[in-house]
Amino acid sequence: MKPALLAALLVTAAFPASLMAQDLGAPIGDDAPVETTATDASQAQAEEGISFTVTDESAWQDIGIAIPAFATDRERATPANEAGTGALGREVARVITANLRNNGLFKPVGPDSLPQPGFTQITAPAFPTWSGQGAEMLVHGYVRARDDGRLVVGCYLYDVALQSELVREGWVVAPADWRRAAHKCSDLIFSRLTGESPFFDSRIAYIAETGPKDRRVKRLAVMDSDGANHRFLTLGSATALTPRYSPDYSKILYLSYVDGNPRIYVYDIGTGKQTLVTENRNPTIAPRWSPDGKHILYSMAVAGNTDIYRVPATGGASIKLTDNPGIDVGGSYSPDGTKIVFESDRSGSQQCYVMDADGKNQKRISFFGGRCATPEWSPRGDQIAFTRIAGDFNVAVMNTGGGNMRVLTRGWQDEAPTWAPNGRIIQFFRTERNTGRSGIWQVDLTGQNERRLPTPVDASDPAWGPIRP
Amino acid sequence: MNTKLATILLLASATGLAACSKKAPEVLPPAPTDTAQPTQPAMPAQPSGAQPGTQAHFAQAVGSSTTIYFDTDRYNVDSQDAAALQAQAQYFARFPQVTFTIEGHADERGTREYNLALGERRANSAKAYLVSLGVDANRISVVSYGKERPVALASNEAAYAQNRRAASVIIN
Description:
The complex is a heterodimer.
Chain A (H helix, E strand, L loop, with lengths): L1 H13 L2 H4 L14 E3 L19 H4 L3 E3 L4 E2 L12 H18 L4 E3 L17 H6 L4 E9 L5 E9 L4 E10 L4 H17 L8 E8 L6 E8 L6 E2 L7 E6 L5 E6 L6 E6 L5 E3 L7 E6 L5 E8 L2 E8 L6 E2 L7 E6 L5 E6 L6 E6 L6 E2 L6 E7 L5 E8 L1 E8 L6 E2 L6 E6 L5 E7 L6 E7 L6 E2 L5 E7 L5
Parallel strand pairs in A: 2-4, 2-5, 3-5
Antiparallel strand pairs in A: 1-7, 5-6, 6-7, 8-9, 8-31, 9-10, 11-12, 12-13, 13-14, 15-16, 16-17, 17-18, 19-20, 20-21, 21-22, 23-24, 24-25, 25-26, 27-28, 28-29, 29-30
Helix pairs in contact in A: 4-6
Chain B lengths: L1 H20 L33 H8 L4 E3 L9 H16 L5 E6 L6 H21 L7 E7 L10 H7 L1 E6 L2
Parallel strand pairs in B: 2-3
Antiparallel strand pairs in B: 1-4, 2-4
Helix pairs in contact in B: 1-2
């Protein structure tokens, strides 16, 4: 307690009082949508490509994808890369290669071990060269700096054996957003080859952790889905926990001890201002957005008993959804907004329950032994991920009726799953025994391709936002 | 502010040393200080060394009873907890100007949000018991830290048992 206070005082000295009052760093500004453009590398119209369908997951793993450096029509200076648009084209291809490699479904070969195509080849690939490399799929693209300073990035996917174009798209981005074009291209390729919804162009809010186990500093932080564009949003003088991005990325809900008590704040990313989720003297925890962003769920303890409430995101009166002497906490909406899955210990231990969005028809769904905590409804609607506590803590999924439970991870303490926007991948945080050190991990729905996400410091409470517009 | 904190820290460590050298009193009121350091001038009816209304003074007076402990996932006050809370209640009756916070905690073997709710329940359980013993509810604040502030750092049952606690902390 006292060392934490002293640390807080030290931090105070370094920042203006107005910022310190809310433990907030400088705002990072609004999130603008990426403009889609016609790919203008060629006058040629896209022909109807031959349909390419993946019928079996095992088939994907053998797909060799060549991703050479993106070309540029004319070498120009850009704030996105000090070496110019040509070097930027290579970086874009590297980002796409890393994306496709890290999700485990593809075996991409990146620009550093491939020949570099010229600008005119982007729409007329040298297919014999690429089939000679053993590539089945070929990604081509270009980067062009417009006179207004913005960048046009074109992205093409070819089937090498069929020598045909499968899909193409282009985007206009500010130089600072060049990685988003690489993520959009990754999403285009991923979706075309798997039939799944995109997920790369998305962000993650989480808690960055530093310091010893009994004096852990916990800061609100955000990053892109691949760990790039990392930012700390709070200074660390107050413990921050459990963030959630709003569906439009304009706000983050999170818990802060900034006034000494656990309370939920709504942080506006554009203005850098934050407000209490509800004007109330009671502690509020476990914030969640409704899928349309119009409502917020929070849990509030009154005289020691925690129940779940709903409040309009714009403020106003709260409605109490659960009324039970047990701990009712959390809550995650079905994607259509009609139901909420939450956890309660009303039966004597933490179990998962589903209720209507107005709190009616509360029904326990977890009956497989052990405890069920932190349930999160898949964005696809068909599955619920949760923390299964049966000795160790592991991430598991079940269907919305509580059936077909499958444990996906085997750590000592894996908790708090969050879904990728396409409902195929789950992130969670894993805590080490004894040291208390934590990191964000992800695993796919088959339980395969488990990997740790790179973060600058220890990390917990990941919250994956939706696909960006 | 810094000086004051430093003072508290010094007093707290002094108390810690004292608690090592002799057994802390179990029950209030403590006897006049014939067992304290002989060079210390006796302050009748009060523990020596700390100002009344400080955490150090409270800890000197009630010893380990500043904190009560809970079983896994439980928040009930058992007979051992009741004895500790009775010692606290006597202290708070003796020093009616003192206000304090009950900090509720959980062990690390729980999910983060549930543990925040559980710590809240434990702190309120301790508060309700103190109120039933006559301590004015307006003197008691409550805060839950869930599993965020462990005192015992190992990952084993002995450490968890120390971390499942409600600690009374003097405010001023």
